[in-house]
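Task: sequence design from structure.
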């Protein structure tokens, strides 16, 4: 039995269009601003990055904020340049242990950077507190930020000792 060339063309076209639509549907959530949820982390990411810029200029202001706490002190590591922006870590030490690790500066050059920063920085801070060292795992999808965070964290720990 002979197949009709028009039927074959229609089926091939329909399959191609279906495949393209499925591929585009898979890529859409990764694009910045593709959903309302993507905007929320980007707004959160800008909050740690902006105070960090002010904190980087007023590094001498960190001791007065930690001076009121007995035994606790705050140390800021060096700013590390990455492909997506600077990363600078601020740690709080109490009794020689890391009690908090935050980003004084973090990549925020684009909405995508802000979104990645919003997910990676809190996780890196938690890992630093848990590990009590700069030997922490990188966050998947935020390799450059993770490497910069580790380097700045190590410089803060070196300065604290």
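Answer:
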């Amino acid at each position: 039995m002979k197949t009709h060339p028009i039927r074959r063309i229609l089926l091939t076209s329909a399959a191609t269009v279906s495949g393209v639509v499925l591929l585009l549907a898979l890529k859409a959530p990764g694009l910045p601003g593709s959903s309302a949820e993507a905007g929320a982390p980007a707004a959160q990411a800008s909050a740690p990055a902006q105070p960090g810029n002010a904190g980087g200029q007023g590094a001498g202001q960190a001791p007065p904020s930690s001076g009121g706490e007995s035994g606790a002190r705050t140390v800021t590591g060096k700013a590390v340049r990455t492909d997506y922006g600077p990363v600078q870590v601020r740690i709080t030490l109490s009794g020689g242990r890391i009690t908090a690790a935050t980003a004084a500066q973090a990549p925020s050059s684009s909405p995508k950077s802000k979104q990645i920063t919003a997910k990676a920085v809190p996780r890196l801070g938690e890992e630093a507190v848990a590990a009590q060292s700069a030997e922490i795992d990188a966050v998947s999808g935020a390799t450059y930020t993770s490497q910069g965070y580790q380097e700045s964290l190590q410089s803060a720990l070196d300065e604290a000792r």
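The first strand starts at residue 72 and ends at 76.
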